[in-house]
Design goal:
Domain 6-phosphogluconate dehydrogenase NADP-binding: 240-399
GO molecular function: DNA binding; NAD binding; NADP binding; nucleosome binding
Radius of gyration: 33 Å
Strand content: 5-15%
Subcellular location: Chromosome
Keywords: Chromosome
Largest sheet: 10 strands, mixed
Shape: globular
Domain 3-hydroxyisobutyrate dehydrogenase-like NAD-binding: 402-522
Oligomer: single chain
């Protein structure tokens, strides 16, 4: 049975995880090896589709050269495997024919012996009773050995056992796969065991398709399919990691760094937020300067440009702990001017700098499925590889400092504008007498269907605005994106209109609610 992984495209096969590698908590998934490489990852079961049923559909959707190469690789492997199976089948047939021929000769030989025995018995009938007894004993002895001999002949080749030349292809089925068969993919027909006849599928090989989101551009990316991904032989870096800022995003990031075995020292403006991570094995830093001075690579994730500058330039700030070789990675969503200024002061002290804002929300941060946009020191980007794999599903390197900030603002501008449009549509449906739930059902069946759309609409329908992405932060990003457009004389009327709606929502005291609370700006 072959599958397609729904969110990316590449080839995978199921393998048993290392004994010391723990399965992600609360996830129905199994361990796989990237086909053609030594990369490994935990993959969620619900992200799979049957390969043969969806291959053509995915080929139409994805025209990328890399995806086609992945499909070609799978098909080539299947052809080779089929050839081996046919050869094994041919060898098995020949062996069966030889065995049948041998059995036939054995039957003929047995028949000849029986005929001779009958003649002898006829002669012995004329002899004494003692002779009868002796012949009877010999006949009984022969009869008792015959079934045993047949059993011994058959034992080396039990029915359904793979030929010897297939042993090198066998990959033990993961126990995790067996556990999840009653879950999301219970309706799939999983590969039969080796004791069952194999029809159209190879029981030893389970290919999947994973996409490399890198296009034909100058950017590069490090891909990790899940928060516990192990990229080949890469293990958690032995460098000491620092982390400043334990907000909605930072908390999930630190948790995943610790789960992956990194040594992490944490600091937060509100010290109580550090307690949970200390219990999980993190160390406590008293000031940003102390964290930077005691760690090799220090990450920071704070709310806005002012907070980012204060963290670096303020009393006992990052800059005081920087000395040659120290590394600083700013994951905050800020404008390009701010991040450029921070890079300059860090580098002026002999430090190394990387900007790495993240796209996602609290849930994606907790799940280790963020998208990381990085720019600056390329060597530092590579040094952060295991950290980025722990916290995200994909990371992009976008070149010089400032590029990641610009890209992140554009991404959030699109997201914020879309959220405002969703709220506007739901309120228009309500005032025109249409069912908001029906509107959501229709959208979920169309081209706009997405997890983001469904979750935010559910927030609105249920009146649940618990923050997953603060409204005040998306409004900040819209404001910065508009300023970015102004700096290059590029109009952003849609973003400007959405920004005004978020400003009204903030005036209605919705700043600390989820961005979906922008809906309330339309009903008040």
């Amino acid at each position: 049975m072959y599958f397609i992984l729904t969110f990316t495209f590449n080839c995978l096969q199921i393998v048993n995880p290392p004994k010391d590698l723990k399965k992600p908590r609360g996830k129905k998934c199994f361990f796989v090896k990237f086909f053609g490489t030594e990369d490994h990852a935990w993959i969620k079961v619900e992200q799979l589709k049957p390969y043969h049923l969806h291959k053509e559909e995915m080929i139409k959707i994805n025209k990328g050269k890399r995806f086609q190469q992945a499909v070609d690789a799978v098909e080539e492997f299947l052809r080779k495997t089929k050839g081996k199976d046919q050869a094994s089948s041919h060898n098995s047939s020949e062996e069966k024919n030889r065995r049948n021929s041998s059995e036939e000769r054995g039957k003929q030989s047995a028949g000849e012996e029986k005929r001779k025995a009958s003649l002898s018995e006829g002669k012995l009938k004329k002899g004494t009773g003692e002779g009868k007894k002796r012949v009877s004993s010999v006949s009984s002895e022969r009869g008792s050995k015959s079934p045993l001999k047949r059993t011994q002949d058959q034992s080396p080749r039990k029915r359904g056992r793979p030929p010897k030349d297939e042993k090198d292809l066998t990959i033990p089925e993961s126990s995790t796969v067996k556990r999840v068969m009653t879950g999301t993919v219970a309706g799939f027909k999983w590969p039969p065991s080796v004791s069952e006849p194999v029809k159209d599928s190879d029981p030893h090989f389970h290919p999947f398709l994973l996409s490399q989101t890198e296009k034909e551009t100058g950017s590069t990316s490090i891909q990790a399919a899940d928060s516990t991904a192990v990229n080949g032989s890469i293990t958690p870096t032995d460098k000491k990691i620092g982390f400043l800022g334990l907000g909605l995003m930072g908390s999930g990031i630190v948790s995943n760094l610790l789960k992956m075995g990194h040594t992490v020292t944490v600091w937060n403006r509100t010290a109580e937020k550090c307690d949970l991570f200390i219990q999980e094995g993190a160390r406590l830093g008293r000031t940003p300067a102390e964290v930077v001075s005691t760690c090799d690579i220090t990450f920071a994730c704070v709310s806005d440009p002012k907070a980012a500058k204060d963290l670096v330039l303020g009393p006992s700030g990052v800059l005081q702990g920087i000395r040659p070789g120290k590394c600083y990675v700013d994951m905050s969503t800020v404008d390009a001017d701010t991040v450029t200024e921070l890079a300059q002061v860090i580098v002026s002290r002999g430090g190394r700098f990387l900007e790495a804002p993240v796209s996602g929300n609290q849930q994606l941060s907790n799940d280790g499925m963020l998208v990381i946009l990085a720019a600056g020191d390329r060597g530092l980007y590579e040094d952060c590889s295991s950290c980025f794999q722990a916290m995200g599903k994909t990371s992009f390197f976008l070149g010089e400092v400032g590029n990641a900030a610009k890209m992140m603002l554009i991404v959030n501008m699109v997201q914020g504008s879309f959220m405002a449009t969703i709220a506007e549509g739901l309120t228009l449906a309500q005032v025109t007498g249409q069912s908001q739930q029906t509107l959501l059902d229709i959208l979920n069946q169309g081209q706009l269907a997405s997890i983001f759309l469904d979750q935010k609409c559910q927030n609105i329908l249920q009146g649940n605005f618990k923050p997953d992405f603060y409204l005040k932060y998306i409004q900040k990003d819209l404001r910065l994106a508009i300023a970015l457009g102004d700096s290059v004389n590029h109009p952003t009327p849609m973003a400007a209109a959405a920004n005004e709606v978020y400003k009204r929502a903030k005036a209605l005291d919705q700043s600390d609610n989820d961005m979906s609370a922008v809906y309330r700006a339309y009903i008040h």
